[in-house]
Each structure stands twice: as structure tokens, then as C-alpha cells.
Amino acid sequence: MASFKTSFAQFVTILFFSLVLAACDGDNGSAGADGAAGVPGPVGPPGPSTGSGIPIGSTEKINIAVSGVVISAGGGAPVVSFALTNDLEQGLKDLPAGDIRFTLAQLSAGSGGGSSEWQSYVTGTSNGIPDAQADAEKGSVGTFVDIGDGTYQYTFASDLDAYSGGPVFDGTKTHMLGIEIRGQAPISSNGIIEFVPVGGAPLFERKIVDNDTCNACHDRLEFHGGPRTDVDYCVTCHNPSSIDGDTGNTVDMKAMIHNIHSARSDYQIVGYGGSVHDWTDLVWTQDIRNCQTCHEESDLNTPQASNWRLVPNRAACGTCHYDDGDPLNGSNDYMIENGEHPLDLTLTDDTQCLLCHGPDSDIANGAVRVAVAHEIPTQAASQRFQYNIEGVSDMAVGFMPTVQLSVTNPLDGSYYDILSDPEFTACGGGASRLQVSIAWNTADYTNTGSGSAPAQPISISALPCFGAPGSTPVAGSPGVFSVIAGTAIPAGAVGTAAVTIDGHPAVDIDGTINRIPVLNAVEYFGIDGVDAMARREVVDIAKCDNCHKELSLHGNNRTDNPQVCVTCHNPNATDAAQRVAIPPPEGPSACETELGFDDSPIDMKYMIHAMHVSGEIGVPYNVCGYNNSAHTFEFESPGQVANCEGCHDRGTYYPVDPGTVLGTTIDAGADLSTPVDDTVISPNTAVCSACHVSALASEHMIQNGGDFMATKMADSTLSSTGVETCALCHGEGGIADVEEVHHVRDFPLN
After folding, report:
1. Which of 71, 95, 106, 444 could bond 197 through an S-S bridge, CB–CB 3.0 to 4.6 Å?
2. pTM for the full model?
3. Last residue of a domain, one of 379, 394, 427
4. Are residue 370 and residue 429 in the same domain, yes or no?
5. Shared-domain flag, residues 527 and 576
6. Over the stretch 307-361, which tens digit does the pLDDT of each residue have?
7. For residues 519 and 408, what is the distance between their CA atoms, to the nearest angstrom?
8. Reduced to 3 states, what is the DSSP secondary structure of residue 489?
9. Does residue 575 sit in the same domain as residue 694?
10. Which residue segment(s) compose the domain that 750 sits in?
11. For residue 658, how far is the Cα from the chain centroid?
12. Residues whose CB is less than 8 angstroms from the CB of residue 427 and which lie 6 or more positions away in sequence, other chains included
């Protein structure tokens, strides 16, 4: 009986489960959504080496590519995988661990209206203050593995919570890692990689300025001995948590860069080895209000470039707007960065900044919006003027040319009446000026016989100011005027003449008359009916304006057109006309007392080189200017003077034909009307000797046909004991090709 009960129970159990299973029978449902990604697992050991790398000491440049960074859950020691290659994409092995350094920073959103902030995990001591300054970790501190084929792996020395000065690790935040290498060939970049430790692409970024923007003026960023070349790498250390322990000054990027470029008087940094860095004497090469020179909103690589106007804050704005200690100068009377503000406001955070200075503020009718307050009125006014050369007649030897001109408003196409409109009739103090000039010839300007010595063009005032007759309206052409040269084209003038317009209208801005810079005009006309030939193009004004934004000189008369500059700054021209004795009571002049009577060349090809290298080589360029004023140029260019293409169009910096391009007059002699008594440097020697000033360099030039004591014939051609042969070696493809020896192609933007 017992056995029957047991068997029956087993049968019931089997039947029950059979029914249950039958009830589960049917079609499979759709797959569910993926679960959340798990935290990254530990990194396995490197695979076996292929042994295909070449020694790192054999390369001339190192390229860094980071393939990944893994940080385990909770902020374990980061593991970095990266490769080093040369320009042939060959792997580079045998890098010593002590020659490489790593930075790592975490990005957090701003608080209290402030901007987002990077913070470095790795920190160091500054002037005895622990964790005062962000730092980089040497490869010899953690675990460094050279796999042998150009790939490497580095494990940081500690878990991230062990870095006492770093942020609290958050695996969901954007992180950035960078690399520098010292003691080896130069690196092409800092191997920047942005990542989110838990996975996925970074969605929160801080891209304010990029390398191209900085390199446009600086040519190539190279700081702290050379291997720090990326703006992104800079901010991994230069962030709000870092100070200079010696001075207490911040080295946060947004504050430091503004402080440097504005030449803030109380901003100093003590750097490596106790070196003191003071930028008080720095003169930025353009108006400091040109925020968008660096913050380039049109650049797709800098999506947060608009922060300059959308995220006003005390730390950034206070670097230019600070208390300079002078209560009488009417500016810089409040320590904005410390919360002091006009109208007796005290700011404890940045939340109020946007209310007044943001893009939608209607305070003072929007006048204190950041973008509006930083507008440059003269630049805005200049958009309303355009100079036009409408035609030329009588451009022939023995004739006085007539030039027809107009000034228009390109915004609406209207014409100005230059004889009655207030912009052109403010003669007092020279506020209004409009000048037409004629120069010849475009092969190389000499202007011999112009009556304006030495070597200056024929010049005609289009305005009836200071006794000049001015221009005459052209019948039937409203807005068009004509002027007639006071000097005939002289015998011996051949080729092509340049006709130019320079000068400045006068505009009242907030009760003050301003000289408005306007792009100069130039057109070319054949003398005696020959076909016109434009002067050679050597430099690109866009490259000049990378640093200068707007190149307006000589009292805002000559603006943004090098082809106008060279009509005066030509091979026969010196400053001799200003090197004259002026008797009392007007004299003596600054030119006489500071520089003396020995004239200086103002030839463009010599002068510009001499100016821009003056500080680097320690040889000042001295010149006398308008009203016998004295000017000494001795400054360090923000760019690298070896980069010919920082100014030049490609290929225009090779040695010239000394039979075509004229030599540079360095002494105009006793008779300024003729070049026959000039002292001259042969053309290629003039250019190269402006930078290469050593005795050895001079001897090399002389041995190869250069001449520092040549003269000129009546037609301005060179009379020399030698013939320059520079192109044989330094020409394109030569054994010492200029482009190669200057490493022009190594600059990032070339």
C-alpha cells in the first residue's frame, strides 16, 4: 500500500509540472533594453611585443597617440595605453620612463554663476605650500611598460583618492589626460584625450580657445622648456586650484592669460628655478578690447568660445578691470575679482554678473552687455567708408596726371561729398585728411624726380586744408572728384605707376573727434600707355592682422594695405629728411638729441625684419619720423622670427635676382634728389643682415657676392664689386634651402 501511495504522489507531481510547462509554451517576446554598462574591468597585462619599433633617439619628431585610459570603479589607478611614432608612422621604442610625464584633470560645472572648471589630480608644493600647484606625474613614479613596438602602457602611482590635492573622483564627469616628453626630439602635440571613465563620449566640454587661434600670432606654442604645446594641455594644470606659492597669484588660465596680455602692473609669477616673470612692459599688438581675436566663435573646435560674453564672471573680468591704485585716471578703480563693483555693489558670487552684462540685459539700454561694452567705435565707424580710384588721365612723361576719386559708404552705396560733409572738413588738428599719391615704378619704387626727397611719391591733398586747393567735383558724376598732380612725371620714368589713396575721415564719437582708419586704395596705370603691371605680392595682410587685427599707422593714415606702404618704404628711401637741425626755440628736435643726423634705411624689406627681430638679437632699430620725432624699436616679437610664412606668402622669401630687385640705401648722401651718391647694401644681403648680424654671417655674405658698401647708378641699379650668388645654395631646392634651414614647414599653420 505504501508503495502505491508513493507512486501516485510521484505521478501527481509529474503531471503538475507538465501542465505548468505546457502553459509556458508559445512565441518568444521581443528582447528587453540593454542594461546599464558595467564598470570597466581591470586592464590586462600588455600583449607580447612584435619587436618592430625603432629607437626613439633616431627620430627628429615624436607623435603621441593615446588609445585609451581606463579608470576602474571608485577611481582606481588610471591605466594609459599610448603609441609613439615618427612621421613615417614607425613605432618608437626605448623611451626612458623618466623622460615622460602625465597630467590628468576632471571637469566640473561652474557654481554661483561662474564658469566650468578643470581641476588636476596631480599636485605639488610651491614655495613650501603643499598641493598649491597642479603638476605632472613622471613615468618613473608609476608603472611604465615599454612593449617594444612603439606602444606603451603607464599605470599611475596611486588610486585617484590618494592624490590629496585633487578633486573627488566622479566617473560620470569629463576627464582629460595629456602627455609631455622631455630630453628627446620635439613632440608634435601633447597627446590630448578627453574621456568619461564610466564610458561614452564626453557631453560636457570646456573648449574656449584652441591652438590655431594662439599659433596665428605665436606661430608655435612652446612653454616650460618646449614640450608643452597644446592649449588643452595647459588647462590641465592652469586651472582655478593652482597658485604661484611665491606671490600668491593665481595661475588659472583665464586669469593668467588676461593678466599677461593686458600687462597688468601687479601680476608676477615666480617660475622654475626662481625665475621672475613680469609682463608689465608687454604691449599687446592690438586693442585689448578685441576679445574675439582669441575667443573665436566661428571656430567649430571651440564651441564654448562665446563664454567671453555669455558667462561673465569676476575671475575673468577682474583681470582687466582691477584697481590699479590710481584714483585719478578714471579707470580701473575697483577690484572686481574680489567682489568690488561700481555703484557700491559688493558681489559674493557671479550670479548677478549676467543680469547686467549678459546678452539679454537691458540695463543702460544694453550698453553694459559684455559684447557691447567691448565694441571699438572707430572700427565700427570704419565700415562706413571706402576709398575708390575712379580713373586716371595724363599718366605720361612731362604731364601732370589727373586722378578721379570717390569715397563711398559700402553699407548703402552712397557717396560722400568730400568738400562739404563734416567727416572731411574737420581740418583743425589734421582730423580730416585724404591724400592721393603717385609712385613709380612697380618693378621697384624709386620715385626719382618726384620733387619729394628722398624717394617719396608725388602727393596731392584731395581736401582744401592747410592751404591746399583740394579737389574739384567731376561734372555729371555726383560724388566723384578730381585732383591734378603738382609735379609732372619726370623724364626717365618708365613702366607702371601706382596711384594710392590714404588718410582718415573725422567722426565724432561721444563728443570726441576721432581719426577713422580706412583701408587704403591702390590701382596701377602704365606710364606712356604701357600695359600696367602690379607690384609683386610678398606678404599677406591677413597674416599681419593675425597679430595686429588692424594695421593702421602714421596717425591712422596708412591702413591695412602693404602695397601702399611700399610706395614710400622703398629701396631708395631713408629718414634723411627728418635728420635735420632745428634751431631754437622750436629745436633741437628729439631726432637730433636722441638719434643724431646719420640717416637710417626705411626700405620695407629691411625695416620690417629689423624691427621684428630687434629684441631677440639685441640690436635696436632707430628711425626718425613725422615732425622729427625719434623712435627706437627693441621688442621681442610674439611669433617666432624663423617662420618666414608668419608674414610671407609661400615661396616669396627666397633670394631675389639682384639684377631686378634694388639694393637698400643706408645713407642717402648729400644730394637727396638722386641715388648716385647713396651708400647701399645689395638686396639679399640687406634682408638677411637685418636678422643675421654676427661678423661670421656678414663675412659669409661678402664671400658670396654680398656688398655692404655698394653704390647706385642714376637709374638706381646696383653698382657693386660683387654679384650675389645666394640663390645657388639658399634657393628653392638648394643645399641650404631657406624653407628648410628655417624649418618653415614645421610650424603648425604653414
Report:
1. 71
2. 0.88
3. 379
4. no
5. no
6. 999 999 999 998 888 877 777 666 666 778 788 888 888 888 999 999 999 999 9
7. 12
8. strand
9. yes
10. 571-750
11. 33
12. 463, 464, 465, 466
